[in-house]
Amino acid sequence: MSRYNIVMLPGDGVGVEVMAEAKKCLKAIESITTLSFDVEEIPCGGKYYLEDGERDWPEGSEEKCVEADVILLGAVGWPAEDGQGPVTMKNGHMAGYSAVLGNRSLMNLFANVRPVKLYPGVNHRIHGKHVKVWQDNHVDMVFVRENTEGLYVAAGGTLDRGGVRSVAIDNRITTKEGCDQVIRYAFELCKKRNKGAPSDGQLRVTCITKENVMMGCKLFKSRFLEIGKEYPEIEKDTAIIDAFTQWLIIKPEHYDVLVTSNMFGDIVTDLASVLQGGMGMAAGANVGHKNAMFEPIHGSAPRHAGKNEINPIAMILAVKEALEWLSDLKSDTTLHQAAEAIESSVKELLLEGKKLSYDLVGKDSSVTCSDVGDEIVNKVITILDS
Predict the structure, then answer these.
(1) Which of 232, 251, 277 is the last residue of a domain?
(2) pLDDT tens digits for range 218-245
(3) What confidence tens digit (pLDDT) does each residue in 208-225 have?
(4) Which of 156, 228, 293, 321 could form a disulfide with 170 if both were Cys (CB 3.0 to 4.6 A apart)?
(5) Rounded distance, CA 62 to CA 33, Å?
(6) What CATH number is attached to the domain comprising 25?
(7) Is residue 10 part of a domain?
(8) How far from 32 is each of 29, 110, 220, 383, CA to CA, in Å?
(9) Cβ neighbours of residue 369 closer than 8 Å, sequence gap 6 or more
């Protein structure tokens, strides 16, 4: 029996609901394989901070995350009582910072990896509607976003005069080391995927920057071109961020693996999610050399919380990504089989098109979050038991 330690950070809002479905998946896998998961749930986020008053997760949580084989994150962020944005802590950070940005920094989770794949049976969301394009299989790419530098490292400050905030400064930090580790990861991922772009089958890594204006982007692109020399079999593609946003929508089939800086990556992957059916289908990974944390990218969505209506597929696909990553790290083929069973179950459910959440089929035809989770779990058990 292979035993693994998993830390779950359900967080706020719908994070708690989708994490419950992730836990069902892991229990199902345990019941039918030789895998065993020691799961510890750690509360975190805005609601926890409002109750605790000092911290946004319990003392000792950092150490437990570092020691875990893998971390699963739901979502953090909860509305402040005055309705003006999320709950913030005394240090100015959003409550939930420790579990997200704190973990990324603490464990050098330098690569934020976001697959963008349109599964058969799912329609994209352009014009705010579901549009059938999946038959053409033109959306299958992976974004690799730098995850520990840029504008999100809280370097800067404010100037208050007479109680009025009149100046706010955010300094962007770009280092050669930070560029190199995420760019090399992107090229290695392209080799490992060995798929190429849907349009032409060419192995391709696209570097997205604003080097015509920003010095940090100049460094990022120069490191991309230099490291790219080590991968002659992979095409080196470049794009300016503003132009890229239109190309992403009009020719997604051109892209295979894409690498970019922290804030640009945060923005363009949310945009890209419309090509895969919406946020309910979008999973993400925060990957370092020895540690990793996996999550849906949809956030805590407070207005949907407690209604049992959110789509859990992104969270379940995050579990798939987690088991796949852990399989490679531990050379455990059973983990890989379990990951494949999850993805196959999701594909099967989507093709059937019957028991899906409101974001995919509309409210009149939808089932609950827990119903979707149950359907996937049943399919996982059937596949692994066959």
Answers:
(1) 277
(2) 999 999 999 999 999 999 999 999 999 9
(3) 999 999 999 999 999 999
(4) 156
(5) 30
(6) 3.40.718.10
(7) yes
(8) 5, 34, 46, 10
(9) 14, 17, 18, 21, 308, 309, 310, 311, 312, 357
